[in-house]
Amino acid sequence: MHSQATPSLLETLRTGTALLHVALEKRLPFFSERLDTEWYRRLLQAYYGFYAPMEVALYDSGLITEGFDQVLRVKTPTLLHDLNALGVDERTAHALPRCTELPTFDTPDACLGALYVLEGATLGGQVLRREMAQRLGVNADNGGAFLDVYGAETGRRWKDFLDYLGSLPLDTPAKQRAVDAARSTFSCFEQWLDSQEVLL
Ligand code: HEM
C-alpha cells in the first residue's frame, strides 16, 4: 500500500482529472433529448478528428513505455468503421477536419497520462453504448462500435492497463508530467469538440 503522502500514479491521475471529466461529461450530448442520428454522426466525426491525430502522435512518438499493447488498443479504425456505417465513405472521412492543437507528448510520462484518458474513456463508453442503443438504435454494426470498442473485454483491458500503470516506478515529477498531459488531453479534446460545434 502507498502512504497518503505519496499517492500512486493512478490516484494522481484520478484526482487530477476528476473535475475535467465531470465538466466534459456535462457538455457531451449523449443524454440530450435533442441528440438525433445526424448529431451523433457529427459527434463521431469530431471524435475521429481528435483520435486519429492523437493515436498517430502517441504511437509514432516512440515514447510509450514497454508493456502497452498498441495493436490491441488502437481505436481509430473502429471510429472509421462506424463512420462508414453511418454513410461517411473512406474518402470523405479522410478529408474530415483534424485537431492540430494536441497535447505535447515529449516524455514517456506524458504518454502515460494521455493513454490513461483514452483507456478510461472505454469505461464511460459502456454507459453510452447502452444509451445510444436504446435511444438511436445504434449498435456495433450500424455506428456504435466505438462506444464498445473492447466489447466483453472492457473490464479485463482496464484492469490490465491499471496493472501496467501500477508496475511503473514513477517519481513525483514524473507523475506530475503524466497528470499534466492527462489534463491537457481532456482540455484539448473539449476545445476541439467545441470548435466542431458538437457539444451542448
Ligand atoms: C457523457 C460521457 C461520459 C460518461 C457518461 C462517462 C462515464 C464514466 C464512468 C461511469 C466511469 C467510471 C466507470 C467505472 O469506474 O467503472 C468513467 C471513467 C472514466 N472516463 Fe468517462 N464518461 C464519459 C466521457 C468520457 C470521455 C469523453 C473521456 C475522455 C476522453 C472519459 C474518460 C474517463 C476516464 C479516464 C475514466 C477512468 C477514471 C478512473 O477510474 O480512473 N470519459 N467515465
TrEMBL record:
A single BP term in Gene Ontology: heme oxidation
Record-linked InterPro entries: Haem_Oase-like, Haem_Oase-like_multi-hlx
Coiled-coil parts of chain: none
GO molecular function terms noted in the UniProt entry: heme oxygenase (decyclizing) activity
Organism: Pseudomonas cremoris
Taxon lineage: Bacteria, Pseudomonadati, Pseudomonadota, Gammaproteobacteria, Pseudomonadales
Record Gene3D superfamilies: Heme oxygenase-like (1.20.910.10)
Name of this chain's protein: Biliverdin-producing heme oxygenase
